[in-house]
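Progress note, project year one: complex with iron/sulfur cluster.
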Amino acid sequence: MVIDARRCYGVQACTVACKAEYKVPLGENRSWVEEIEKGNYPATSRSFLPRLCNHCDEPACVPVCPTGATYKRAEDGIVVIDKNICIGCKYCVQACPYDMRFVNEDTGTADKCDFCIHRVSQGLDPACVEACPSRARIFGDLNDPESEVSKLVAENPVTVLRPEKGTEPNVYYIGADHTDEHDVVAETMYVDVKTHRRYEERR
Ligand code: SF4
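Model obtained:
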């Protein structure tokens, strides 16, 4: 997926669509949009950062799973959870450096974004992509050089979340401001981040 942060106006349509698609329990989210306010007057800015599972090429959540319930699908690279064998141990919740996982109180199993497999397997876009009124989220096949996402990645400067973690995320951002309250810059500059992260230090 490519997220063009220049187009995101923080309406949270994606957040709501995802909650509705999966009946996500109150207090939890599979995807959300962070609000970043920063700067000292008059040099101030406000931007938005949509978040979801990065379906990493080296997912930190997979090797820690004791039952093999979490794995990366060979056919499309989507990182999934087999709820039939997940025991809800939370190892994966702790391992993900992006705070993208939680244990669903309704199922007792780990939960997170799965790129709406039930939709994309039918040729539809994920619910968040379909709901976005400004096309800030673009979904496609990064292995296809002719796909829109591949062209966007090739033609624009892109960033990923926390590249230093070595997880090799597959969600690419265009024009995103990754400034966080925990950055060193925050000591000299006002930075306020509104987020749904449970562990705010995870970014
Ligand atoms: Fe796993 Fe987290 Fe990467 Fe998603 S973002 S694949 S949950 S490590």
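The longest strand covers residues 32-40.
The CA atoms of residues 168 and 174 lie 16 Å apart.
No further modelling is planned for this target in the current period.
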